[in-house]
Design goal:
The structure is a homodimer. Chain A is of the alpha/beta class. Chain A contains twelve helices and 14 strands. At the A-B interface, β7, α7, α8 and α9 of A face β7, α7, α8 and α9 of B. β7 of chain A pairs antiparallel with β7 of chain B. The complex binds 3-isopropylmalic acid (2 copies). Chains A, B: One of its GO terms (molecular function) is magnesium ion binding.
Chain lengths: 362, 362
């Protein structure tokens, strides 16, 4: 049997509820294809802070770097720690996530937006708008406004407090994530839409320039540019126009959550953080969701779809990926739904039960 | 008769088509209430650049400062100038808009999101989601990422090109726009939702701190904080939860376009830029829209609703404002629609004809 080691970081809130579902799906689907997984469960985020005093302990880093892929559940506030405002920045749960992304050197966050036909009625958007939507958001993940320096707090010439951050991109930062977008478009419908705010931001002007230069290497790919405000509307007005949507860290953070609503919500959205030299990172898009934590109502499908991405993009084990994908499909066909994706006539079940049904389908 | 001087800046693209409709509505409704308007038409944006070599000429500044209110149509690319990428930043059309906002000292952009019952079917969102939505987005307009310094282009230690901008807020910048939000909430349903990314951005942490401090002066107002990515989803999932949504310049730019989709699109959205010491600025949210420019199909309702805001917030002439509002309502009741807001059984008309129908209703 082939063997893989997966670092599993359940993290906070519903992360600890959905992760076991993904792990069991991986274990079972793997065994059916002659693959053994060794899962190393490690701490991250608020859970790590509580146990060790820091949100990203050394042991978590070490186990992650030694793994074949890293699976992360969620980090963020929880019922027990409903705010982290009182903590200095370097101890807050989110820092655990930002640090592991940095440590693995991943720089492209892939968020596929696809609509399950069974869930067409679960979206706020009309069926005519969401039907057949299928695109990939590629968010730059290692630079821009969320990491740029200088950043911090200061006092201005009037003696007032200030808070400041820097949005900065360099050519190579744009190029490496741009290449992932163009390569992906070549395997899809051949279109890249690059989203920026080049009319106002210098960082966006560099972004647009580099993406345009790169497009010359890909004559088969049709490149367009869209302003971020326009794209926020177009995602809702006519999402079928998109194939690969490439954008910056901060814009991608916002736009991928807009796009989530096409699919019936973040309970359905997986993501992959790729591009680093070593193991890649896989995480559902939803956060810790303290409002529903501990009630066994979280939707584990994002987590299981994240396991699919881990197999597909991390380990290149397409056969196992397909198995799990089919099991999700079957479970939805049988009418099982968590309460965030209600559709007429559905059987509403909890997180655990949904997981059991997926294992049954497998 | 009372007299007001209005600086009218039609600008670019469909700005030149919708502005006359708003001007005629103001003229007629004013005359019915014993008010005379003097309209001073001035150049801005690409139109100004073509005629004078700069996007914001001195005369436009002068006429604007001497007026009782400034009405702006749209600035941006057009069929004639389909890209401004070749121009240095200070000559691009958008700079005309950013300069006039600065020159007037306006710092709060008010974007009311209300749904006309006649247009419920025109949205991508389901009727059950959009019905009875009524909130106000208050976008900080004079600071943050779109104005912060340092900004520009550079070379990093690896010899690569970089582009960078600064997101910076000071206490007083947050306080002045915050006050507008809290005051507005007092006249509405008493809720402020402040949107930031305090988990990652120092500028957002200062923002959150100042808004929280200010809330102590308004014990009747219920303040909540929401992360920008979450808010992008919540605007689509359950927009009825919002009353006053207060946010930064860049987040407001994106979120107000998300919110636009609730109402049936930006063809319906007015905005007011207020807070300055002198005349205030009023502009529809849509841009120059080169794709439909010159075809007499633009929706003039955003422009006419902007005239309503000019009367209501700029001149405090509520009676005239109400007259125009009622005329819009009647015109929609008679079934007239532009093609961007089709509803079953509607009479689809062009921009001019829509304007004539509004004048008739007046
Ligand atoms: C928790 C936060 C740092 C993170 C981000 O914005 O990157 C999250 O919102 C996400 O989208 O994965
Ligand atoms: C043209 C541009 C500078 C402007 C902005 O972002 O402020 C526009 O997008 C708007 O929303 O009014």
């Amino acid at each position: 049997n082939k063997k893989y080691t997966i670092a599993v970081l359940p993290g906070d809130g519903i992360g600890t509820e959905v992760t076991p579902v993904a792990v069991e799906a991986l274990r079972l689907a793997g065994s059916l294809e002659g693959i053994d997984f060794e899962f190393k469960e490690m701490l991250v985020g608020g859970a790590a802070y509580e146990a060790t005093g820091v949100p990203f302990p050394e042991e978590t880093l070490k186990a992650s770097l030694e793994s074949d892929a890293v699976y992360l559940g969620a980090v963020g506030i929880t019922k027990k720690m409903p705010s982290s405002d009182h903590l200095p920045k370097h101890l807050r749960p989110e820092v655990g996530l930002m640090r592991i992304r940095r440590a693995l050197g991943v720089y492209a966050n892939l968020r596929p937006i696809t609509v399950f036909p069974q869930l067409l009625e679960a979206s706020s958007l009309k069926r005519s708008v969401t039907e057949e939507v299928d695109f990939m958001i590629i968010r730059e993940l290692a630079g821009g406004l969320y990491y740029g320096k200088p950043r911090g707090f200061g006092i201005n010439e009037k003696g007032e407090e200030t808070g400041f951050c820097t949005e900065i991109y360099s050519s190579s930062e744009v190029d490496r994530v741009g290449r992932i977008a163009f390569d992906m478009a070549m395997e899809r419908r051949g279109k890249v839409c690059s989203v920026d705010k080049a009319t106002v931001l210098e960082s966006s002007r560099l972004w647009r320039k580099r993406v345009t230069i790169m497009s010359e290497e890909y004559p088969e790919v049709d490149l367009s540019h869209m302003l971020v405000d326009t794209s926020a509307m177009e995602l809702i007005r006519y999402p079928k126009q998109f194939d690969v949507l490439l954008t910056t860290n901060v814009f991608g953070d916002i736009l991928s959550d807009v796009a989530a609503m096409i699919t019936g919500g973040i309970g359905m959205l997986p993501s992959a953080c790729i591009g680093g030299p070593g193991p890649q990172l896989f995480e559902p898009v939803h956060g810790s969701a303290p409002d529903i934590e501990g009630e066994d109502v979280a939707n584990p499908l994002a987590a299981v779809l994240t396991a699919v991405m881990l197999l597909r993009y991390g380990l290149k084990e397409e056969a196992v990926a397909k198995r799990i994908e089919n099991a999700i499909f079957d479970t939805l066909n049988e009418g099982f739904r968590t309460r965030d994706i209600p559709t007429p006539g559905a059987k509403i079940v909890g997180c655990k039960k949904m997981g059991e049904e997926i294992l049954k389908s497998l």
